[in-house]
């Protein structure tokens, strides 16, 4: 059987959805690990990561069931959802890769001012206090606050933000191309007849 056949399309689609399943379980596991070891105290951040993991798991499950059963309706909805996810993820990944240092700094400051729990995690893990300047009159949870000799967090965060954005943008761009591959495989697989099935059963 050549790779353009029914079995190859089915196996490739199953393998792709198994990859998505593993990634979704990894996201949920990382969020649980961060909470368990006290690295993340922001339930909003953890909630978003877990929600993304569950969403990806459901999509992968729909695609896997549709591929195994050659279910036309499940495969159609899977293809549409995967196409929408590709558009969003591709746009976000390109935006992450296109941000310059000034735009990164502005976004970091907005995020700093709007998330108290994430701010606490950053101060504790990076051992810094304040964003642009250290103020001994403000509450800070880092170890250096006891000696009142803390660095502001902005220079430390900005040092790594570009690398993190490039990493996130690159990973997102890679997975967006796997999603468009999944859309193409699903479209081709839906229009192929199962050679072992009853011809009248294909709708």
From TrEMBL:
InterPro entries: Tetraspanin/Peripherin. It is a multi-pass membrane protein. Its main location: membrane. The keyword Cell membrane does not apply. The keyword Oxidoreductase does not apply. It holds the Pfam family Tetraspanin. The chain crosses the membrane at residues 12-40, 46-68, 75-100, 167-187. This is TSN13 protein. The gene is Tspan13.
């Amino acid at each position: 059987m050549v790779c353009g056949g029914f079995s190859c399309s089915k196996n490739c689609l199953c393998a792709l959805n198994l990859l998505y399943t593993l990634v979704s379980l990894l996201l949920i596991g990382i969020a649980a690990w961060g909470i368990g070891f006290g690295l993340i105290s922001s339930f909003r951040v953890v909630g978003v990561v877990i929600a993304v993991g569950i969403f990806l798991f459901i999509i992968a499950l729909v695609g896997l069931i549709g591929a195994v059963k050659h279910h036309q309706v499940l495969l159609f909805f899977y293809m549409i959802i995967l196409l929408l996810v590709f558009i969003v993820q591709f746009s976000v990944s390109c935006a992450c890769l296109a941000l310059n240092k000034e735009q990164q700094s502005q976004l970091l400051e907005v995020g700093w001012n709007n998330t108290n729990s994430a701010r606490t995690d950053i101060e504790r893990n990076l051992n810094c206090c304040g964003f642009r300047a250290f103020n001994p009159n403000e509450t800070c949870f880092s170890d250096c606050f006891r000696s009142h000799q803390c660095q502001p967090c902005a220079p430390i965060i900005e040092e790594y933000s570009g690398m993190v954005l490039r990493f996130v943008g690159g990973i997102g761009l890679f997975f967006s191309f796997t999603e468009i591959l999944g859309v193409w495989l699903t479209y081709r697989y839906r229009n192929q007849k199962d050679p072992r099935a009853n011809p009248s059963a294909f709708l």
